[in-house]
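Exercise 7. Given the components listed, write out the predicted structure of the assembled complex. Treat all entries as one system.
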Amino acid sequence: MAEAFRKWQCATCGFIYDEAEGWPDDGIAPGTRWADVPEDWVCPDCGTPKEDFDMVEI
Amino acid sequence: MIPQEIAKTIIDPKAYADGKRVDDAFSYLRKEMPFAQAQPEGFDPFWVVTKHADILEVERQNDLFHNGDRATTLTPIDVDKKVRELMGGSPHLVRSLVQMDNPDHFNYRRLTQSWFMPQNLRKLEARIREIARGFIDRMADMGGSCDFARDVSFLYPLHVIMEVLGVPESDEPRMLKLTQELFGSADPDLNRSGAEVKDADAALAQIGATVGEFIEYFNAMTEDRRANPRDDLASVIANGKIEDKPLGHLEAMSYYIIAATAGHDTTSNTTAGGLWALAENPAEFRKLKENPALIPSYLEESIRWVTPVKHFMRTATADAEVHGQRIAKGDWMMLSYPSGNRDEDVFADPFVFKADRSPNKHVAFGYGAHVCLGQHLGRMEMRILWEELLPRLQSVELAGQPKRMDANFVCGPKSVPISYRMN
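Answer.
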């Protein structure tokens, strides 16, 4: 069975990246796993780099 | 160099009260001089950052463009000089997150960061809803007319943040008065002296007295929370440690002051301005009534529309380039959030209020490491208020001319007279 989608939260502003929804505004399709989000992607709300996001339990 | 007339307008508290005057000045700048220097009389020169993309560019590079090296808000030369004399060379009367850079900013923000995250705020939702309902019931009892700013929007976020902070309800009027004195220091209706401010001595005397009163109040609160910690934000600040040491005195006082002022005034301004927009745009009101799922987008549009924080200043820590302009180390820059939020390159019809605007990537909360810490609390308070108020509000219209406060830093409507029907 496929692994459940997870959520990641920006440590600066609290923005949540939900793997199920992706972030189509930046060309990241729904269903994109965190590992597949480009390394140079930044938080849309505050510009924090991907490496400063944390895992959020749902 | 920006023409003097425009430079004078963008610092003029009365131009922000007028609204259109300041909008026109920034529209001119975005078109003709989107990134240029201004030097109004009595001020050191500063760059005026008017474009949305440039504001993000500057805010994103928080180590290159510092908050605390010079005054963080527009400050005349004579006032700046007096503040430095008073504060042993520092350009700041207080030292909150707003005046800090790394590593202090990171350490002090981390102290309360998790408290302000949505996961933690969820536990407050039921209580905030109860508070919102209380204000809405009161509005219903007012017989169909009120001043929405004074009777509801100033008081509801105030009550929420004071409860969160741990300030007793009996002290709320005092906290509101002190907040309005601080942010409305140029407005004779709100400032401490009740008169026009004539010179630097008078300006500083008023603000100094207000800050002094805050400090006296929060000194007592610190002692109390150290002796008897509770489940409130004041206890987090009073007992917090930065690198195993208690917070510095000025830093602790400033933490309370920013929570007790910016923690409600911005939300109040946005709420009042949001209702003003609905009263002026019946089609948008109907749209929202028919489709409450639009509340989140209406909220974002209210925030963009009001943009209660009008500017912050930054100082370059090294030579740099922004918008093709060379910035020298030490240069001072004004980030104009209302201008960024009316940027025609980002927002279609920026001067039209659209409850369903999407996308709406406004910069009202700032961007980067200094992005508003309280943004989730502010949004939650407003969402709950509108979720409770809209189903009961059958009609609303202006019952007089709304008024904005005279201020160029944090401001919004000070009076929004309305008539309405509620069930």
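Discussion: The longest strand of chain B covers residues 311-316. Chain B has a mean pLDDT of 96.
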